[in-house]
Write a structure and sequence with these properties.
heterodimer; A: 350 residues; alpha+beta; Rossmann fold; OB fold (Dihydrolipoamide Acetyltransferase, E2P); 2 domains; 6-stranded mixed sheet; 35% strand; B: 281 residues; mainly alpha; MetI-like fold; two-stranded antiparallel sheet; 1% strand; globular
């Protein structure tokens, strides 16, 4: 059992605050992804959990034990580093065995674990090699095997796939998901890649400016962003936003169109819709098509609505040319509203 | 300009210089050492080895190197480890540590002579403190070991910094992630030093050991300043045969002995500290 609790953790470097007070609970065996742009504090938070960085304030608990004052080795964790950190002077075998030897496990036990994890990561034929003789993908496998061999309560991963080429990343992603699901460990995974986050996570913590903006399941984060930032960060292309002005009871003008908004809300709101939740039909938002990008499965149309950039993902059978006027109807149940003052989401319209 | 010939042209002046001032003299020395008027001979080596001073000279040199170089390595590793961890004033401290490197070895010898000689600092201090009644003759022929110790101290003081500089630059090249990985996987500070720093520093240690050992075999001015001829060493004897005894052929034989042990030591270090294929970053 290794539930991780982060209680009011903050980190300052001089006058710069990298992390504001972070509160987060990660359930036993959960796969939690910390997602955010570079500089959002996700790696700092991971390193604080690992014990490679100490928090300026707050507490870290792993498996019911307070660990923020303990050295990394006493926390029951293993880690996969961005640049793998596979020791160049040791063979693959000794790399995987490194942590086990530090724990002074008997040689037969070390051997069993090394061979088992090597087999799991499909590197059993590389055990005698040095890292200089391995490709990036193989080094990545060694790094993961080294972490798994520890049979840790918690595995921490710092952008482990970011140095691999696109095809390999896809392959490793699927493999990691399978291996980690079977290992029964709690995983914290840092990435800036939203597709990676969506595909791997049980829950995603979206971070921005040293704060967790939203921590929820991938679909929840995608469908119901808790803040404007989440909507604009997640999704490719991201959410569309348009200003909305109240006229009468619960109705809002959005680029000349009258839509039902949340009752009792402020005078000015922000209307938001995902590009794929739009359809061409009469009586919608008036849009002038600017760029048409056929992508095979569908066509991405970048248009202008009321002077603002507005994207729609439409069926690829559609025939349109730049300059055409379109009428884009948003799916009513997919419309989201944000408060422009706080940029946080209003409750979804039923 | 043809891009294939350009590198050779650029290297030509240095190559010619080395050929003229190193290879040619070396051939001359070899010729001197192995020939007499009658042709090839080993007679000069026999003269050299037959002299009662040869073996003491040889062993003095080897023992000095065998004590000085390992001590320097340990001290330099310690100093480098401390310096590499500094965040502020790191360069200032590095510069201060390296001041002795700017001195000639004769000057270094004379400084230590000023400490150890009969009217030197050490005696004045001991007399001043009332530890001894009158100055002690530290560096006399009766106290060969004191001369030995003095030479070792002077050599440590003078040339440890060069080892440290090499090691500090080597340590700077070890990525921080390796230490973090070692830490996460359970290695304490000493284990990190043994399991990460030492093996990854191997190329630097190899370079430092080769440079320092060759230099230690060539020890001369410090020994002359502190011991005169009481503590004979190989380069000292080479000098002696060349200028005092006026036998250039035996001096050449001595020079070749120094060359031989230098090459042997280099080969040993290359072999012992070699990096396995593929085991580089």
């Amino acid at each position: 059992m290794a539930e991780i609790q982060i209680k009011g953790v903050g980190k300052s470097f001089g006058s710069f605050t990298a992390l504001h007070s972070i509160d987060l609970t990660i359930a036993d065996q959960e796969f939690m992804v910390l997602l955010g742009a570079s500089g959002c504090g996700k790696t700092t938070l991971l390193r604080i959990i690992a014990g490679l960085e100490s928090p300026t304030r707050g507490e870290v608990w792993i498996g019911g034990k307070r660990v923020d004052q303990l050295p990394p080795r006493d926390r029951g964790i293993a880690m996969v580093f961005q640049n793998y950190a596979v020791f160049p002077h040791l063979t693959v075998y000794e790399n995987i065995a490194f942590g086990l030897r530090m724990k002074k496990l008997p040689q037969p036990e070390v051997d069993t674990r090394v061979r088992r994890t090597a087999e799991l990561m499909h590197i059993e034929q590389l055990l005698k090699r040095y890292s200089g003789q391995l490709s990036g993908g193989q080094r990545q496998r060694v790094a993961v095997a080294r972490a798994l061999a520890m049979e840790p309560d918690v595995i921490l991963m710092d952008e482990p796939l970011s140095n691999l080429d696109a095809l390999l990343r896809l392959e490793m992603r699927a493999e990691l998901k399978g291996v980690l699901a079977n290992s029964k460990t709690t995983t914290i995974y840092v990435t800036h890649d939203q597709v990676e986050a969506m595909s791997l996570a049980d829950r995603i913590s979206v971070m921005n400016g040293g704060r967790i903006v939203q921590a929820a399941s991938p679909v929840e984060v995608y469908r119901n962003p808790a803040a404007r930032f989440v909507g604009s960060f997640i999704g490719n292309p991201p959410m569309n936003f348009l200003p909305a002005e109240k006229h009468g009871d619960g109705r809002y003008h959005v680029a000349g169109l009258s839509l039902a908004g949340p009752p009792g809300a402020a005078q000015k709101l922000e209307f938001a819709i995902r590009p794929e939740d739009l359809a061409i039909a009469p009586g919608g938002l008036k849009a002038i098509a600017r760029v048409i990008e056929p992508l095979g499965a569908h066509t991405l149309v970048t248009s202008e609505v009321g002077g603002a950039l507005f994207r729609a993902v439409l069926d690829s059978d559609i025939r349109i040319a730049p300059g055409d006027e379109l009428s884009l109807v948003p799916k009513p149940d997919r419309i989201r509203w944000f408060d422009p003052e706080t940029s946080s989401a209003l409750k979804a319209v039923p | 300009m043809n891009s294939k010939t350009l590198p050779y042209l650029l290297l030509a002046p240095a190559t010619v210089f080395l050929a003229v001032f190193f290879v040619w003299p070396f051939l001359q020395i070899a010729y001197l050492a192995f020939t007499t008027e009658g042709g090839f001979t080993l007679q000069h080596f026999e003269t050299m080895a037959g002299n009662w001073k040869f073996w003491p000279t040889f062993w003095n040199t080897i023992i000095l190197a065998a004590i000085v170089v390992p001590l320097q390595l340990v001290m330099a590793l310690t100093m480098a480890q401390v310096v590499a961890k500094l965040n502020t004033a790191r360069n200032t401290i590095l510069y201060i540590f390296t001041i002795p490197l700017g001195l000639s070895d004769l000057a270094a010898g004379i400084i230590w002579l000023a400490i150890f000689e009969q009217s030197g600092f050490l005696n004045s201090m001991l007399v001043g403190l009332g530890v001894v009644e009158r100055p002690i003759l530290f560096l006399g022929y009766q106290n060969l070991w004191v001369i030995f110790v003095a030479v070792i101290l002077a050599e440590l003081w003078r040339a440890t910094a060069i080892v440290m500089v090499i090691l500090v630059s080597g340590m700077g090249l070890i990525p921080k992630e390796y230490y973090e990985a070692a830490e996460v996987f359970g290695a304490g500070p000493w284990q990190r030093f043994v399991k990460v720093t030492l093996p990854m520093l191997r190329p630097s240690i190899q370079t430092a050991l080769i440079l320092r050992t060759i230099a230690a075999f060539e020890v001369f001015a410090v020994v002359v300043a502190l011991g005169g001829t009481t503590l004979p060493v190989l380069v000292g004897e080479t000098f002696n045969w060349q200028f005092a005894l006026q036998d250039r052929s035996v001096a050449a034989a001595y020079a070749l002995v120094i060359l031989a042990i230098s090459i042997a030591a280099t080969l040993v270090f290359l072999r012992l500290l070699r990096t396995p294929k593929g085991a580089t970053v």
